[in-house]
Amino acid sequence: MDGSGSCCWGGRGRRGRAQESVGSLELTVQTQDPTPPVSRSLFLAIRMNACLPCAKCGESIHPDTAAKNNGLCMPCKGGYREQIEEGKRQLQADRAYEQSAERKHWKGLVDRVYCTAEGFSGLSQEEKTYFAVSCLIGELYNGGFDQFFSNSTGEMYGAALAGLWELEANASAGLLLQAKEVLFGSQLVPTDQTQRWSLMPTIGDDAAPEHKQLANLDRLFCGDPDRLGARCREFAISNGLYADD
């Protein structure tokens, strides 16, 4: 800025002059062609180093960013603002779920099953149904039927199947029975994990044709034909396992 109060932006090239006023003070701004003239609000923001709202989402951005991106923040300019917002919404939902009666009940069941002498047998019949079906759902969405049967959860096969029948989740029960047939045929599913491994053709053989059969059953189950999550919640609330939030 020179002694007359004029604000000069340095650089080579032909210069034009534009006047802006701040209050009663008139400023003369020198700009370079072919740079287009800046808006009054952007000019004042740059002068005061103040943030501006993104023209699309309203988030505060630095005036330099606004000038470079035609008023947009970087996420809006790059097209990934919605992914960021979805991540925020999911984080809020996860935090709310952690404080819910459903989550607290589930953590209590896990402690009783794995940290007490009674274990799974110490649960009430309603709790066994809820726990076994919930474990089945979790394993299926994480790694499919092969994971359910190969992990320790496989010992709850009978309880999970009975639970699905109790919930009248007939389509899901049918898929579980088909998966059992693929892996164990007409044999009973052992409660001992090592014995289950010895019978499962998929253990140690990534090329086993049973993998393809199970993948199709996994896809059908994860299509959620019985709305299992909703059925489990309704069952738990109606049987007084936890209160509705």
Index terms:
single chain; 245 residues; mainly alpha; three-stranded mixed beta sheet; 11 helices; 55% helix; elongated
Overview of the structural elements:
By secondary structure, this protein is mainly alpha-helical. It has eleven helices and five strands, in the order βββαββαααααααααα. The chain has helices at 40-48, 63-68, 74-78, 81-98, 101-115, 125-150, 157-166, 170-184, 193-199, 210-222, 228-238, and strands at 7-8, 15-22, 25-32, 52-53, 60-61. Residues 1-35 have low confidence and may be disordered.
Concise synopsis of the structure shown:
The chain contains eleven helices and five strands. It is mainly α.
Mean pLDDT equals: 84
| Major sheet | 3 strands, mixed
End-to-end separation: 63 Å
Question: How are helices and strands ordered from N to C?
Answer: EEEHEEHHHHHHHHHH
Number of helices: 11
- What Rg do the Cα atoms give? 32 Å
Class based on secondary structure composition and strand pairing: mainly alpha
Give me the count of strands.
Answer: 5
